[in-house]
Design goal:
This protein has 347 residues and is an alpha+beta fold. The chain is rod-shaped and about 100 Å long. Strands 4-3-2-1-7-6-5 form a seven-stranded antiparallel beta sheet, covered by helices on one side. A four-stranded mixed beta sheet has the order 8-9-11-10, with helices on both faces. Helix content is 54%, strand content 16%.
């Protein structure tokens, strides 16, 4: 079996037209001052790429370009590599098969983003040592105090009443025994509550002001406890730091994520929890409110009031040329769907 080729000796730029011949387990090259023979097993053959010429590289550094794909396929077959390469090349040159490969690639990437990353984030977040989580919560609160919070202006008596309700919730829920309640004021943030790692829950003065009963506040606190229990803050920052997440999941070096956690306050400011996280926290609130025989409509009413507050802030934002920090800090995008779901759970 023979085929024409273009030969380069690897020492000069001169090109020579040659004839390649297969003889048993050797490749013979002859023409224009070239005559060489090499064992086929010692040749390095390039992978097929569309209609481009294939290259055959020799141990001496010389190279030969060959246009006859059948000849090169036979070379690879004699090396024991031909079938897989030929199949891939046929796939590459077939538009329908290329489209199938593209769709499959998109599906795999989407599946990893939609299911793989959240699953990894959950496993890594649950493996974070308690001491590390305590440190993350403390440092996050300190940074938020510098960014958006000022000391609470609520009357001491009102804070004591809410703290007493929070203490009872801690006794009712064993997992929340070590949780801590903090009061802060924030004109930028408005009516809101935050759940930080290690069980630090922050409520703003405005949230307390718009609540029409302690039952409404209890619903919000139970919701935030759900965020803490399921480690939503950590999972959120991990899902937004996919590289560190994958490294931590593969190597098991959980301490490697501590540098990522420095971005936790910023992530909370710049993004909201996913719908699945909010649903999980709502379910936790519903379970606790039912346990206390507190009407779910009180929690639903509070969600509606929070939504109205957030819409009001959005309208105010639209009148300004620049966005304020608080515009990014809506961690509870209340929707009619969430309110409807809470009410249906009470039927």
């Amino acid at each position: 079996m023979t085929a024409p080729g273009i030969y380069y000796d690897g020492r000069t730029s001169a090109r020579r037209t040659v004839c390649l011949t297969l003889e048993g387990n050797r490749l013979l090259v002859a023409g224009e001052g070239v005559e060489t023979s090499t064992e086929i097993s010692r040749l390095a053959i390039s992978s097929p790429l569309s209609t481009a010429r294939r290259s055959v590289r020799f141990p001496s550094g010389a190279l030969c370009e060959v246009s006859d794909t059948r000849f090169v396929d036979e070379l690879m077959r004699r090396q024991g590599k031909g079938r897989a390469s030929a199949a891939i090349h046929r796939w590459e040159r077939s538009l329908p098969l290329a489209l199938v490969a593209l769709v499959a690639t998109v599906a795999v990437v989407w599946g990893f983003v939609a299911f793989g990353i959240p699953s990894l984030a959950d496993k890594v977040a649950r493996a974070v040592p308690p001491a590390t989580e305590v440190s993350l919560g403390r440092e996050s609160l300190a940074m938020l105090d510098r960014l958006v919070f000022t000391p609470s202006r609520l009357p001491d008596a009102r804070r004591r009443d809410i703290a007493a309700q929070f203490s009872r919730m801690g006794r009712d829920l064993p997992f929340a025994a070590g949780y801590r309640l903090e009061f802060r004021n924030s004109d930028q943030l408005g009516a809101n509550a935050l759940a930080l790692p290690s069980g630090i829950i922050v409520v703003t003065d405005r949230l307390v002001e718009i609540a029409q009963s302690d039952d409404e506040l209890i619903g919000v606190l139970a919701h935030e406890m759900g965020h803490v229990r399921h480690r939503h803050a950590l999972r959120h920052v991990l899902q937004n730091s996919a590289t560190g997440l994958v490294i931590a999941a593969i190597t098991g070096d959980i301490t490697s994520i501590t540098s990522l956690a420095a971005t936790l306050p910023t992530v909370l400011i710049d993004a909201s929890y996913s719908r699945s996280f909010e649903t999980e926290a709502d379910d936790a609130a519903v379970v606790y409110l039912k346990r206390r025989s507190i009407p779910l409509k009180s929690y639903a009413a509070m969600l509606g009031r929070l939504e109205a507050e957030h819409r009001k802030k959005q309208e105010e934002k639209g009148k300004k040329e620049r966005k304020s920090l608080g515009d990014y800090f809506s961690t509870h995008p209340v929707t009619e769907e969430r309110i409807k779901r809470v009410l249906e759970a009470g039927r």
